[in-house]
Amino acid sequence: MSSTPAIPPSLLATTPEELVPMLAEWNEKPFRAKQIMEWVYRKRTETFEEMSSLSKPLQAALAERFSLRTMKYARVEGSEDTTRKYLFKLHDGRFIETVLIPASMGLLGGRSDRRTLCVSSQVGCAYDCKFCASGLAGFTRNLTAGEIVEQVVQVEKLAGVRVDNLVFMGMGEPMANYTNVTKAITILNAQWGMNIGARHMTVSTSGLAPQIKKLADFPLQVRIAISLHGASDPVRDRIMPVNRKYPLAELFEALEYWNEKKKQYITFEFILIKDVNDSREQANLLGEVAARLNAKVNLIPYNTVEGLPWVRPSEKVQKLFRDTVASYDVMATLRTEKGHDIAAACGQLRLKQETADGIIDSAIPEQRKTIAAGV
User: Pfam families, from UniProt (predicted)?
Assistant: First the structure.
C-alpha cells in the first residue's frame, strides 16, 4: 500500500507564541514572530522568499520547517451573485468543499449583509446523518487547524472578497475535531490572524453533548447551531444516528449549560422532510423546546441528494410548520434554499470528484456510487 509523502506542517496553524521559541533556537529576536504573521495574514505571501524583511537564512529555516499552502484549488461551481462551492485537493489526494454565500443570503435564517463562508472540518463524516452526502463514503480523517484556516485564506483570494462570517457546517462534525477546530477559531479570531469576530463564527454540531459543554467553557464568544431535525427521540433516531448516543434529554441538558456560560443565542437547524418530521406535532414540540432554551429556529426545506429517498414538503406545509413554531414566541425563519443547481448539499461535489478519480468506488455500496456519480 502506497503512503502519502509527508509535508511540513502549515504555518497557518502556528501562533506567534509558538514561533518565539523556534526563533530563539535560530538566534532570532521575538519581534520576528510579528513580522512573519504580517507576511502571512496581511500581505498573504505564498512563498517564504517574498518575506523580504527577513534574512535569507531565516527564510530558509522557515521553508524547511513549515508549509504556506497545503492544498490546491480544484474548481468552483456557481457565480459571483450566487452561492459558490469551491473544491480543494488536499496534499493526500482527498477533496474538501468550502461554500461562499453572498451577502444578501442568510445561512442561519433571514438575510444578511455579511459574506458567509461555510468551512469543512473533516474529510467525510462518521455520523451518517440520513439526509447528508458528507458521510456517504465514510470518514477519512480530521482536517488540521492549518487546513481549516487555509480554506478562508484561499477563498478570499479566489473570490476577491473579505469573508466576515464563518460557519463550521461544511463537511464533517466540528465537535469531533474539537482541538483543531478551536485552534483554527483562535487563529481566525486573532488580530494578528484573520481578525474575524468570535460572534461572527458559528459551530454547527449534530449534538455531541460533552463537547457542547466543552465549547461552552471555551473563552471566545462563538455561536452554536444544533442540527436537530427531529423534536422527539423516535423521529430524531430515524434521521440522526447520534441521537442514540446522546438523546434529546442529554442534548438539551448540555444546551442549558451553554446558556449558563454563553451570551450567544442557540440556533436549531431543522431540515424539513416530507412525512418524516414535518408534522404539526413536531412543530409544536420544536416550538416548546426552542422557547424553553431561548433558541432561534432555522427551517430548511430538504435539499435533494440523488439516490436518497427523502423529498421536501410542499410550500404550504413548510409555512404552516414555520408559523406553528413561531406561535410559541420563537424566532423561526424558513430558508429560501439556494444551490440545487450546484449540488449544494454538503459533500456531493467532493463525492463526484473522488469517484471520477477512482478514490472511492468499491468501498461504498452501489447506491452510494450512484449518488457520488450524480446520476
Answer: Radical_SAM (PF04055), RlmN_N (PF21016)
